[in-house]
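Researcher: Next sequence.
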Amino acid sequence: MESSTFDAVAYFYAMTERNRLAKEKGFVPVTISNTDNLEGLMEDYRDYDRFVAVTDTNSGNLASADGAYGFTKRRAYTVFILSAYEHGNMQSRQEELELCRELFRQFVSRILRDKYLYDEKQMYFDTHSIPNQEIGKYYLSGMTGLHFTLYVHEPVDLQYEEDQWR
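Model: Next structure:
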């Protein structure tokens, strides 16, 4: 079984660059290593104030309905939608949070549309639940927003091949 791997960074970069609201409001896509290390964001923080930050690492697990055949790899990708607000201004913070919420809603509507395109590639976007969490006002000083997780299932070939062993 030959399958291509889902490239979450390319997918969310393209989504950010093609979304009218994201373009109009100046959101830029950046890559981060994980939710604890926001180096991609910090590199561009002086030049931009709105971000879609995509993790380039993921967690995953192998699973099979019967434990023997038809394995898939389930991978979790985390995406932050962040916007700066005027320090100490809670109205500004609320407005920027609402903007991030709306962009998230639009991203999810696109994910729901795209899931059928990926089904044809034997990849499955798990849209039964898309966990999301708004960030607290002290997580990133002067920034608000949220992060969400997209789970993707991909077939994986675990066929034993004798020539790989001594």
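Model: The radius of gyration is 18 Å. The chain has four helices and seven strands.
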